[in-house]
Specification:
- The structure is a homodimer of 123-residue chains.
- Chain A is 60% helix and 10% strand.
- The first copy, chain A, has 123 residues and is mainly alpha-helical.
- Chain A has a domain at 44-123: Arc Repressor Mutant, subunit A.
- Chain A starts with 13 loop residues before the first helix and ends in a 5-residue tail after the last helix.
- At the A-B interface, helix 1, helix 2, helix 3 and helix 5 of A face helix 1, helix 2, helix 3 and helix 5 of B.
- Chain A binds a DNA duplex (30 and 30 nucleotides) through helix 4.
Chain lengths: 123, 123
DNA sequence: ATATTATTTAAGTATTTGCTTAAATAATTA
DNA sequence: TAATTATTTAAGCAAATACTTAAATAATAT
């Protein structure tokens, strides 16, 4: 099907619309990748996991289960999603798997962490 | 029900677990708020809308429908979600509603935009 | 070997999400 | 006033999400 215009208003700026399409094309891959990371961090439980890893270095699934007061499988499934995109990595020590942030995977997340810390409630 | 521990391993660092719970408590409100913004930006269509608003200043729903090649109601519903949390605002000019980013609403998003631009594909 | 512990994986389910189409508002024009 | 245009809102639905419980791995200890 041909490209259908939804908007017929006189003020519609065709050059602007073309420029926007081009901008999206140029940044398409980055936008897709960043939106994936943001979708992961957009879940409160996962953001807590990432934030804690940033604070503590490494933690294991049962630590998170204790801290977040949720089941170990639920934690494990969140962790897997973040591992799948390379946000976090694991290290085995006996039966325990320690998870940690992959450094410099995504600058956006670094900024998210500092932003959370900046707004820390002053006791 | 009482707080049940999932993890009984000897190495479990009770002080660390307490510290983590406290950290989450202290930052609870911020984490909740930021995760909401990230969840919104974690949708590729919405991230494109936000990115375009950052580039162009203001655009109307039918502009987005044209650019993103999707229906006007679909765009409108995405826009509403972002307006509901105060990420964007509207200005009416006749029949047309122009949407724009609310400045300084969230520093995290500013960083997301610069991160997208930084990775721009070099033509 | 068997049992225990830490974790993952799988299957099932309720909720949420993102679209669709149709109808409702709102402003403009004839 | 009636018709047109821009937009929102509502209802319905398929797909995705986040949990649950039970079963499967994997490492350690008895």
């Amino acid at each position: 099907m041909a490209l259908e215009l939804s908007c017929t208003r006189a003020e519609a700026d065709q050059k602007q619309l073309m420029r926007c399409r081009e901008t999206l094309g140029t940044n398409s891959k980055t936008i897709t990748e960043i939106s994936k990371v943001l979708a992961l961090a957009g879940n409160e439980t996962r953001l807590k996991i990432l934030f804690l890893l940033n604070e503590e270095g490494e933690l294991c699934p049962c630590d998170f289960a204790d801290i977040l007061e949720m089941s170990v499988p639920a934690v494990s499934q969140h962790i897997r999603k973040m591992k799948d995109v390379g946000l976090i990595a694991s290290r085995r020590e006996g039966q325990t798997l320690y998870y940690s942030l992959v450094p410099n995977h995504n600058e956006v997340m670094d900024n998210v962490f500092t932003e959370i810390q900046k707004n820390k409630k002053v006791a």
